[in-house]
Amino acid sequence: MMADHSELPAEEQLYPVPAHLLDASQCPKPWVSSLEQYKEMHRQSIENPDEFFGKEATELLSWTTPFHKVHHGGLQHGDIAWFLGGQLNASYNCVDRHAMSNPDKIAIIYEADEPNQSENITYGELLRRVCQLAGALRARGIRKGDTVAIYMPMIPEAVVALLACTRIGALHSVVFAGFSAEALRDRVQDASSRVVLTADQGKRGGKTIETKRIVDDALKSCPLVETVLVAQRTGAQVPMKEGRDFWLADECSKQPGYIDPEPMHSEDPMFLLYTSGSTGQPKGVMHTTAGYLLGAAMTVKYVFDYHPGDIFACMADVGWITGHTYIVYGPLSLGATSVLFESIPTYPTPARYWEMIAKHKITQFYTAPTAIRALRRLGDDWTKGHDLSSLRILGTVGEPINPEAWHWYNDIGQGKCAVVDTYWQTETGSHIITPLPGAIATKPGSATVPFFGIDLAILDPVTGKELEGNNVTGVLVVKRDWPSIARTIYGNHQRFLETYLKPYHGYYFTGDGATRDKDGYIWIRGRVDDVINVSGHRLSTAEIESALIMHHAVAETAVIGANDDVTGQCIHAFVCVKPGISIIPGHASTLDLSKELVLQVRKVIGPFAAPKKIYLVEDLPKTRSGKLMRRILRKIVAGESDSLGDISTLADPSVVEVLIQRVAKS
Ligand code: 6R9
Description:
Blueprint: H1 19-22, H2 35-47, H3 49-60, E1 69-72, E2 81-84, E3 87-88, H4 90-101, E4 106-111, E5 119-122, H5 123-139, E6 147-150, H6 156-168, E7 171-174, H7 181-190, E8 195-199, E9 202-204, E10 207-209, H8 211-219, E11 227-231, E12 245-247, H9 248-253, E13 264-265, E14 269-275, E15 283-288, H10 289-302, E16 311-314, H11 321-333, E17 337-341, H12 352-360, E18 364-367, H13 369-377, E19 393-397, H14 403-412, E20 418-422, E21 456-459, E22 472-478, E23 488-489, H15 493-501, E24 508-516, E25 522-527, E26 531-534, E27 537-540, H16 541-549, E28 554-564, E29 568-577, H17 588-604, E30 613-617, H18 630-637, H19 654-665
Parallel strand pairs: 4-17, 6-7, 6-8, 7-14, 8-11, 11-12, 16-17, 16-18, 18-19, 19-20, 29-30
Antiparallel strand pairs: 1-2, 3-13, 4-5, 9-10, 14-15, 15-23, 21-22, 22-24, 24-25, 26-27, 28-29
Helix pairs in contact: 2-3, 4-5, 4-6, 4-11, 5-6, 7-8, 10-11, 13-14, 18-19
Residues 275, 320-322, 397-400, 421-426, 447, 510-512, 524, 526-527, 533, 536, 538 line the site of ligand 6R9.
Domain AMP-dependent synthetase/ligase: 96-481
Domain AMP-binding enzyme C-terminal: 543-627
Domain Acetyl-coenzyme A synthetase N-terminal: 38-94
């Protein structure tokens, strides 16, 4: 076991690369196995990106037409392009080439909600299923460039669906199946999708989710949708609309077991994924084919140190970018066996993760800090008695990991595993700041160092000047583009430029604050915009506010993120009711209204966006020019009312005292 420096401040704790990983008799040699090698490769990737990425793209991907130019354009004008002239197909890269060399290798281990219902899918089988669904989509009129909405539980058909779309050059637009009907409708409409892929029901933690019914609700106002293909997860009776709804299996069975992949140009759009920003309107982040796929493949190789024979397990949902890149495209592009986990960490017991690791001999395990914190709370007993000796790498993603959770997770690895805290975003496509397991000593809570091709800077938020050297805090930006960065927002390139490239001209703006410590390590400090991170899910305050304001009793609202021990942040909503509606704290009518408002958010966005607290108030703190002071609300909720700063600029400073009382009583 290694030395425990958990008594030191996190910044001072340095955990070296575990000796186990560098022991050739125990583990395959890491692709990057020393700090010097990382530094040298990073230097090359920045000084000579054409040569560096040209080589990686040739080695890791299969092309039908080779590219003739590695890079063009950049952040200055938002005209990013990589691997020009090249042609390839993502589904070919993720399926065919492995099905040809190794048809019986397991591509997907489907770990179903009930542990005993698991199922393995080989590459050969995956190829047949992908081709048949691709054929079924074509038969429904879907062609290259069309968008297909996917609203599915975590079943093998979801993986097949993504790959079937990319096989024919259709853009998939996966909507996380925790979103409500209204949120689904907005995304189907925005992307002009004509086909929706879904399932009869979902299963999660022993509960049944009425997936198809939610789709039916959403489609009441989606006139463009012509076809719904329904996978059978439970076999339940669900309403099927004549002429529109078909069983996915029936449609697939009519199709041949092989169709040719559509040749795609490197910069042809590959998929859309909606994400929340600082406005209420979700953005359809668009990725293109070659750059995205290369980022996915490279990070599974280098960050997860993937070697043939590894069993790769990412616990995210395919509805988020983490599922896209680290369940589907990254591992499958390398021909790995990837675990698809349908359940939750506590079902049937809080030992589920550890039982699963032992059962499948998982080598890389990737989850979110919120899951780690939740399991840590339930006690160490659940972690005991499982053979976790197959593990080499433990990854986290989605939000900053607090040192206590990091140590607990690190202990799961018993000193033999590297913990990789991977920082990235829907827009970055793949990891951009992360340790490499064989090369970078870690510090609990720090995402450590930039990945290849990532040229970071920390800027003064006000002047926009680069803060040079160490021991600096500011906004995190990237100085040049890299292959897997998003290219645009669907249908709104202007918004892409304004959100990411214009706030600090010439830089990619992440929206996060960060510190570079005395050793040059990066610590992500969280969002600097109005985005709240609940259990690793991105939500915009504006989106929640516009959901609340639709309620007839609401005049105005202010939503803020508050700290939460398990979910990282949680949502607190200050709701100013319309005149004439009386609020009596603790009174039944007031409690009912609070409940209605929570339901309202669940209905408009989804259950995961439900406010944890609602404060019904008569007034909100505003400046004389009418600007809402969320900063003051955040301080009140955090119990820092004694350091509110100057409130004399408020139109009515007496509002503050009333709010302090209201929050204290709740
Ligand atoms: C992959 C993903 C992106 C936002 C990002 C940041 C937060 C993600 C993190 C992290 C600290 C990490 N975030 N990973 N913060 N450390 N390792 O989560 O994408 O859903 O787009 O969220 O998540 O705030 O800006 P996405």
